[in-house]
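FAQ: What does a ligand-bound record look like?

Like this one, built around magnesium ion:
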Amino acid sequence: MKNMKIKEIMFTENDIDGIVSELADKINSDYKDCQSLTLICVLKGSVIFTADLIRKLKIPDIDLNFISASSYGDSDISCGEVKFESVKEFNVSNNDVLVIEDIVDTGKTLKKLVGYLKGKSPKSLKVCGMFDKPERRSVEFEPDYIGRSIPDKFIVGYGLDYAEKYRNLPYVAVVEEETV
Ligand code: PRP
Ligand code: MN
Ligand code: MG
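The answer part, i.e. the structure of the complex:
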């Protein structure tokens, strides 16, 4: 594993709060007639974003659920395979469902998850990503809500990891390989 160091801050804590508020405003407006919503937080990366977003949502009944998806393992290289594990059973059929992700990269995780959830006949199904790297897309996938599109740089913090580190940073930073 390469030694990485923080190169620059891309989004401060304050920037992030503004982006999450913008997203919550859009979602609140689109779901204004909606009584209940099934949220699916994709572990581990989107746990911080989910925690912030749900506290800004005004939909009366929110059912928060977790699914574990992992494609990158312990390095920054994708092995090209996405694995899912549901933390606890939840009901999708006939519900309005919103998937929450920290970042859309190749699109493989969400494309596969959306295909899986569609098979369970939701009433509606949308995806909200905090960040998007459109340059990296290798499968056709467009999220319904995106906080910010970003260039193809390796970012950490606000739930995003490098080899399971840095998720706890309250800001989003670009990391680069340490040269001695
Ligand atoms: C990262 C990220 C997304 C996914 C995006 O998760 O949190 O879930 O990769 O990549 P993709 O668009 O190329 O599929 P990761 O698999 O690293 O697991 P983690 O959330 O536990 O860090
Ligand atoms: Mn993830
Ligand atoms: Mg990861």
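Follow-up question: can I read anything off the structure? Yes, for example: The chain has a mean pLDDT of 93.
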